[in-house]
Each structure stands twice: as C-alpha cells, then as structure tokens.
Amino acid sequence: MTTITHIAPDIGLLPTSFVNVYFIGRPGGAWVLVDTGLPGRTKQILEAAEARFGAGVPPEAIVLTHGHFDHASSALPLAEYWDVPVYAHRLEMPYLTGRSAYPPPDPTIGGAMAFLSRFVPFGARDLTGRIRQLQPNEVPGAAGWEWIATPGHSPGHISLFRPSDRVLLAGDAFATMNMDSWSGLVTGRKTLARAGAPFNTDWEATRLSVKELAKLRPNVVGCGHGIPRSDSDLPARLERFADGFRAPRHGRYVRRPAKTDENGVISLPPAPFDPVPFATVGALILAGVALGAGYLDEQRRK
Questions:
Q1: Contact between residue 257 and residue 277 where contact means Cβ atoms under 8 Å apart
Q2: Residue of 23, 65, 36 whose CA lies nearest to 209
Q3: Are 112 and 288 in contact (CB under 8 A)?
Q4: Residues 76-88: pLDDT tens digits?
Q5: Contact (Cβ atoms closer than 8 angstroms) between residue 37 and residue 21
Q6: H helix count then E strand count, the chain
Q7: Domain spans, the chain
Q8: Cβ(63)–Cβ(139) under 8 Å?
Q9: Residue 168 and residue 161 in contact, taking contact as beta carbons nearer than 8 Å
Q10: Are 230 and 219 contacting, i.e. CB atoms less than 8 angstroms apart?
Q11: Superfamily of segment(s) 5-255+276-301
C-alpha cells in the first residue's frame, strides 16, 4: 500500500522513485498537491491521496514548482481525474503549454546527474485547458503559504514557504542529497547540495535563489530530491551552503545563461563538445537508474 510520511502534521511526503511530491492539508479540509513526479505515477499518487484524505476527495489544486520532466509528468492525468487546475509561475507557461522546449541540459559539467541528463527529456508538456498562472502572494488552496520566485534551475521555478512555522518546500532550488555523486544518487544520504545541476541554465540566478531561501531560516526543508531535513542547526547549515554555493568550473551555462522570456527560449550559448556517445551507454544507464531508484525507495521505507 502506498503511504505518505509527514514532515509536519499537515504536510505529507510521497517519494516517487527519486522524486518527491508533497501533500499540504489535513484530512477533512482543503488540500493541495505540490509536484507530480515522473510519468506513470498517477496510480501511486492517487492511492496515497485517498489513504490520507479519503476516496473522492480531490485537492483544491496542483501546484508545480516547475515543469521539468520529473516534476510535472503526471500532472495532466491527475488534473483530469480530479478535474482541478494546475498552477505554475508565468515564466513556466511556454514549457507547460507546448510552445517551447526547455533549454537543453548540459552533460559536460561532470558528475552523476550530468551523465544521466543525456537521456532525460527536456521537451515541452501541453497542459492547455488545465494550466493556470499563479497570482502574487497566493497559493491556491493553501492558506498561510506564500510562493517565492527562485529562478535558475528553470526560468519560472518557485519555492513554497509558510512563515508561521518556517516550513520550506524548495523544489529543485537545491537538494537534500548529492545528485552529482553516484553513491549519493543511489543511497540518498542526507546533505545539502545542488539539485539537477545539468538543468541549471542560469547559475548566477540559481546562486541568488539559494541565498534568498537561506535568509528565510527554515526549520524544515523538503526538496524535490532527497530526504527532508529538520536538524536543529538547519538554518546555519543552509546559510553556510548558500555562502559556499558555486557554479561548476566549466559548462555550457557557466559563463553565459540561456536567455528566455514569457514565450520560451530566446537564445542559447553554444553547446560544448560532448565526448560520450549516446548509443553505447543508453541502455546500461537507464537500467542502472531503475535499479538505483528501487534501492532508494526501499531505503526510505525502512
């Protein structure tokens, strides 16, 4: 049976492979789903939601921190099943209405996730008819929460914050696991680290977003990847992480970001030479990811 664990009394976490989705709300009241994971996770998320809130109790809305493949791929089937809207930042709209693909990831920065990024889709999703633009200072269905623009990982990336108890849902602004390390990616060991680094297409914006989140001094942090943290020294740890945040030494977007606007991609810096051929490693890597994701799910259930 699919179950939700809790990072606060009214905030549930559901790991779906190596990607987290969150449930904001209590049984008997309004609730909101934050992110929707990979393709094919609809049934898992529905089972968890029904176990928590009851059968036939839809959320007020689905809120996306951003529209990348691993965070938004189950959004449309869930929205259609529940007949609810999906909300995202206005600068995510071109990638969620089929108008533009995201800037391509940069596999040349090095590390585990960079290697895997060669095999991850970065095209647009089309949620036309369901997608809505977030309005300032409002998280639909989640009273007391605010959203904060945290661009860099994607043009319209947002994080969610509740000032009353300083709970932060940071999406992919950063991670609580080391996705650049093969061992970190497989074991999910707790640490503060970059999230999905090859998909960061504006490194200066990413750095500034992490700095802004550190200023909030959160008591609890749940990210898109990794086990949430609530250490007593978390604010200080996050501040140190933000102060030490650095772009990679080399890579496509390190010296020049992708240029985007409300219509999508405007221009891209030239792609560096990528020495790794797709055909010879694709099947092996995809098999490895599947095995690693299964291991991580098992570790989290223990």
A1: no
A2: 65
A3: no
A4: 999 999 999 999 9
A5: yes
A6: 9, 15
A7: 5-255+276-301
A8: yes
A9: yes
A10: yes
A11: Ribonuclease Z/Hydroxyacylglutathione hydrolase-like (3.60.15.10)
How many residues are there in the chain?
A: 302
- Classified as helix, coil or strand, 260 is strand
Structure tokens at 157: 């990336």
Using only C-alpha atoms, the chain has a radius of gyration, in whole angstroms, of 18
The C-alpha atoms of residue 211 and residue 193 are separated, in whole angstroms, by: 13
Distance in angstroms (rounded) separating the CA atoms of residues 226 and 237: 16
- Return the ∠ at Cα 100 (arms to 97 and 106), rounded to 5°: 130
Beta strands in 227-288 (DSSP E): 259-261, 264-267
Query: Are the C-beta atoms of residues 17 and 225 closer than 8 Å to each other?
Result: no
Contact at 8 Å (CB) between 108 and 206? no
Q: What global pTM score does this model have?
A: 0.90
Find the helix or strand (DSSP H, E) in which 11 lies.
Answer: strand 11-16
Q: Say if residue 2's pLDDT is above 90.
A: no
Token reading at 179: 């996705």
Instruction: Say which residues have a Cβ less than 8 Å from residue 127's Cβ, sequence separation at least 6.
Output: 72, 75, 76, 79, 86, 96, 97
Average pLDDT, rounded, for the chain: 91
Q: Are strands 86-88 and 61-63 parallel, antiparallel or unpaired?
A: parallel
- Residue located via tokens 């895997």: 116
Spatial CA neighbour of 104 closest among 115, 91, 117 = 117
